[in-house]
Amino acid sequence: MDKPTSQSGTVLLVDDALDNLRVIHDSLQEAGYAVRVATDGFAAIESVRRMPPDVIVLDAMMPGIDGFETCRRLKQSLDTREIPVIFMTGLSDTEHIVQGFQAGGVDYVTKPVVIEELLARLATHVHRAQLMTHTRAAIDSAGRAIVAFDGLQHVTWATPLAQRWLQPLLEDERLPLPLRHWLHGSDAGETPYALWHEGERLLFSLLEPGLLSIQRHASLPEPETLTRWFPLTSREAEVLYWVTLGKTNREIGEILAISPRTVNKHLEHVFEKLGVETRTAAASLVLSRGQS
Prior knowledge:
Helices cover about 45% and strands about 20% of the residues. The chain is of the alpha/beta class. One of its GO terms (cellular component) is protein-DNA complex.
């Protein structure tokens, strides 16, 4: 077997059996991997959060929290769920093998570990992990914030930029409730959805089923500023301001103490003066002007 280069990758080795830990550590290090170690599940989780490895080689049976629970906890976090986990176990029955996969593992080896077999599996998973990392970094460097989600709106993958923007809004790793409601609506593929967080606007667009892009805009200009930017009356500027915040005509009417029909009339004038035809186009014009 060809010996991996010194750039083979980083492995976190987790095992409470020190003799086994030492043998595997030395073998992986000799094969060119940078190896970190942990002797229990809690230490492993802390190590991963502090500095994510390319792959985790995890003993299934340990005191405290076992390997299965350790893996489940890592898979619950958007920051660590993509790291592949290879289980080590002396349990060869189907039940425990299935349990490892159900916990989020991608592979397993049985004890006593055959080093050549472990190296072969590591090479495959490290390569895939590094390719995924490079892909995410490339998308991130291009300024794209992309999020993938499953049928229950759990986030399954995100670029680093999307992670930073979205993490404070997640509910048990699910997309925010208003966003989930929007995804179930009939116009999700046509009209972007806006969420405000700490004075900034996150604009979500559905690229295809299960895939969102996010754009972030700074705090919205006040109506007084809009009257300086565009040929609008004060009331039209107020309506445009709340439209850009994603409010409906009924909500705007309640805020401004006017009827939804009157709001719609003002909005028609706004569209005509701005040379646009939709609420989304009007809001996009405001946001693009604010960034210029």
